[in-house]
Amino acid sequence: MPYMGLYEPVPGEEDWLFRLCGTAMVRIFEKDATGKKMFADGIIEGDIKRAFMRYFNLVYNWPNPIWFNGTIWYWRDNHHISYKGMSLPLSKTGPEITQNIQIFHYYCGEEVF
């Protein structure tokens, strides 16, 4: 699944671990984040870090599927990248969310990632 990501919170930190980063996401971010922390390892940084923090806090505190879409206007070289997808909370222990799986679709102009 090239557009799939599997994440889980890092205990005691405001960070998330990429358990799996699909091949299309590797192309988009130009690095394989599998096994790395989202913020501490510099996968997500700069202006978009705050948006990712808000989103992942929502995902882990509201145990429902989430449909999302939007545009990152300050993508590489001042271009934009649009996205849409679905986030599904997962649990190993019952009501507590322990992981999150997301399916994405990214696009920029005519180019589809």
| Proportion of residues in β-strands | 35-45%
Our count of domains comes out at 1
**Helix fraction bin:** 10-25%
The fourth-level CATH homologous superfamily is PAS domain
Give the strand tally: 6
Provide the gyration radius in Å. Answer: 14 Å
Using the 3D structure, state the CATH architecture.
Answer: 2-Layer Sandwich
The largest sheet is:
6 strands, antiparallel
CATH fold description: Beta-Lactamase
Structural shape: globular
Structural class: alpha+beta
Order of helices and strands: EEHHEEEE
Provide the CATH top-level class. Alpha Beta
Q: Detail the poorly predicted runs.
A: none
Terminal Cα span? 13 Å
Q: How confident is the prediction overall: mean pLDDT?
A: 83
Quaternary state of the chains: single chain
How many H/I helical runs? 2
Could you walk me through the main structural features you see in this protein, from its secondary elements to its overall organization?
The protein is α+β, with helices and mostly antiparallel strands and 113 residues long. It has a single domain, classed as PAS domain (Beta-Lactamase), CATH 3.30.450. It is 19% helix and 36% strand. It has helices spanning 23-29, 48-61, and strands at 4-9, 16-21, 66-72, 81-90, 99-108, 111-112. Strands 1, 2, 3, 4, 5 and 6 form a six-stranded antiparallel sheet that branches. The longest helix is centred in the middle third of the chain and has 14 residues, at 48-61.
